[in-house]
Amino acid sequence: MDRNKKILIIDDDPRNIFALKLTLQARGYACASASGAEEGIKLASSDDDIGIILMDMMMPEMDGYQAISELRQMQETKSLPIISVTAQAMVGDKEKCLEAGADAYISKPIDVDQLLDVLNQF
Predict the structure, then answer these.
(1) CA 99 to chain centroid
(2) Collapsed DSSP state (helix, strand, coil) of residue 74
(3) CB count in 10 Å sphere of residue 57
């Protein structure tokens, strides 16, 4: 991932945003965050510095599946890498996230080394 770009964290739980931001910033990544899918979509489509999205899949109002679908339909965001981040780690959940349009999948609790490996793929 281009270190000049920001990682957009979309999650309805402020504790998750805080922990991810702290972890990523300590490793030199710039971060932005949104506390819901609609806010995240607006930010992703209006900020050219967003280079990748970490998307919580289970949020109220609009879940990550719906948000990914909307992002994939918008010209400004259709090619942005999206990593689904979810506590759902049952058989088939990874495939469901990838079928929805995510580029990668990480289960919670997040393994930081795994997250960094995935970020380095982009």
Answers:
(1) 15
(2) coil
(3) 25
CB distance 50 to 6 below 8 Å: yes
AA letter at 20 = L
* Architecture category of domain 6-116 in CATH: 3-Layer(aba) Sandwich (3.40)
Over residues 22-66, the pLDDT tens digits come to 999 999 999 999 999 999 999 999 999 999 999 999 999 999 999
Q: Map out the domains of the chain as residue ranges.
A: 6-116
Tell me the H-state helices in 7-99: 14-26, 37-46, 64-73, 93-99
User: How far is 37 from 26, CA to CA, in rounded Å?
Assistant: 25
Task: Check pLDDT > 90 for residue 15.
Answer: yes
Per the omega criterion (within 30 degrees of 0), is the bond before 81 cis?
no
Model-level pTM? 0.93
Place of tokens 């793929």: 121
